[in-house]
Amino acid sequence: MALYPTYPLGTDRLSLRPFTRGDVDAVYGYRRLEAVARYLFDVPLSREECAVAVQQRISQTGLTEVNDKIILAVELNQTGTLIGEVSLIWRSIEARQGEVGWIFDPLYQGHGYATEAANIMLDLAFGPGDMHRVSARCAVRNEPSWRLMERLGMRREAHFREHAIFKGAWDEEFIYAILWQEWHKSRQPGQTTSK
Amino acid sequence: MSSLSLPMETDRLVLRTFERSDIDDLCAYHMLPAMQRYVFSRTRDASEVAGALGIMRNHVSLQRPGDTLTLAMVRKGDKKLIGHISLQWSDATAGQGEVRFCINPGYSGQGFAKEAISAVFNLAFDHFRIHRIFARCDGRNHHSIKLMQNLGMRLEAHYREHALFQGEWDEELHFAILDREWQRSSKVKDLPPRHRVA
């Protein structure tokens, strides 16, 4: 079953919408930073590379085949500022598996925006996306990222040590996951979902 | 790296590559439902086992990443094939290897698998200079889980319902051990034969 959501998705504070060509400067604003690139597969990006990245993202708005991605710009409703992106990848059609990810501008950390945006992606995956399990991965040293996974109600499923080389050094990685039934329970009335 | 010398010996086992004549002993355990429950490739009858044997007979060394070495566990004395163990060189840059093993349930619980796996760990770390060995098993496979903990492997992953396996939600565990974590010193190593002849 393909997934083509109607955009924007959002909350009172945030809008999640497809990227547009006008987003290059905002993306460059945080993707050029070493602090942002450290745990990504990329190095800090030039403006030209950001233009390419944005160009790719413009069409990444639906899921039809395995490994397709939805990547959405996260915007503050009040100011219209682009503060980062969230993504959902279709990892297995038969076993209904998805993976979420995010990149945020450090300038806007500490307001719960990333949690709010990632929760919208979980709702998309488990709701209209009909997925059974959604995972996320990050470097063990990237504590803000795995703290966020824990706030989303995800469980730590894997802690790999020195299983690969990442940017010239031994990699240490966490994988977190949440099952449909766990997500469903967390969305029941009376359940406190952490922000 | 010294050249690989096979067969290898442990206290009670000879570990050697597979031979065409292993088919009967292999059928004796490979077709069992208890075995089929956890293996990736189906070997439900003698012809499917013969197919598997053909593949395993080609697993004779690790020359390049992706290669697998599969060794038959043969009991000294009666020369009975009681199981097998394989080491796959899964990644060269990061020095990764994966171990898989099967043992005839009629011979389990006597430490044969542990003996064979220990020998393969020595081979992997000392001879092939592998940095990390991992092994996967089904969440219900308690014998394997115990064995891997017993070998000093750490539980690195516990996936729940992350895939379908034989028509059901899969539960999969990953165990791993690093080169420096493998306690060779605690193993009694045989002296080379010439030192024994005094």
List the helices and strands and how they pair.
The complex is a heterodimer of chains A (195) and B (198).
Chain A: E1 9-10, E2 14-18, H1 24-31, H2 34-37, H3 47-58, E3 69-76, E4 82-92, E5 97-104, H4 113-126, E6 133-139, H5 143-151, E7 155-166, E8 169-179, H6 180-186
Parallel strand pairs in A: 5-6
Antiparallel strand pairs in A: 1-2, 2-3, 3-4, 4-5, 6-8, 7-8
Chain B: E1 8-9, E2 13-16, H1 23-30, H2 33-36, H3 46-57, E3 68-75, E4 81-91, E5 96-103, H4 112-127, E6 132-138, H5 142-150, E7 154-165, E8 168-178, H6 193-196
Parallel strand pairs in B: 5-6
Antiparallel strand pairs in B: 1-2, 2-3, 3-4, 4-5, 6-8, 7-8
Helix pairs in contact in B: 1-3
Descriptive overview:
The complex is a heterodimer of chains A (195) and B (198). With 195 residues, chain A is an alpha+beta fold. Chain A has a domain at 9-132: Gcn5-related N-acetyltransferase (GNAT) (Aminopeptidase, 3-Layer(aba) Sandwich). In chain A, 28% of the residues lie in helices and 33% in strands. Chain A has six helices and eight strands; from the N terminus they run E-E-H-H-H-E-E-E-H-E-H-E-E-H. Chain A has helices spanning 24-31, 34-37, 47-58, 113-126, 143-151, 180-186; strands spanning 9-10, 14-18, 69-76, 82-92, 97-104, 133-139, 155-166, 169-179. Chain A has an eight-stranded mixed sheet with strand order 1-2-3-4-5-6-8-7, sandwiched between helices. In chain A, strand 3 (69-76) and strand 4 (82-92) form a beta hairpin. In chain A, helix 1 packs across helix 3. The two termini of chain A are 31 Å apart. The mean pLDDT of chain A is 95. Chain B is an alpha+beta fold and 198 residues long. Chain B has a domain at 8-130: Aminopeptidase (3-Layer(aba) Sandwich), CATH 3.40.630. Chain B has helices at residues 23-30, 33-36, 46-57, 112-127, 142-150, 193-196; strands spanning 8-9, 13-16, 68-75, 81-91, 96-103, 132-138, 154-165, 168-178. In chain B, strands 1-2-3-4-5-6-8-7 form an eight-stranded mixed sheet, with helices on both faces. In chain B, helix 1 (23-30) crosses helix 3. Chain B is globular and about 40 Å long. In chain B, 32% of the residues are buried. The mean pLDDT of chain B is 91.
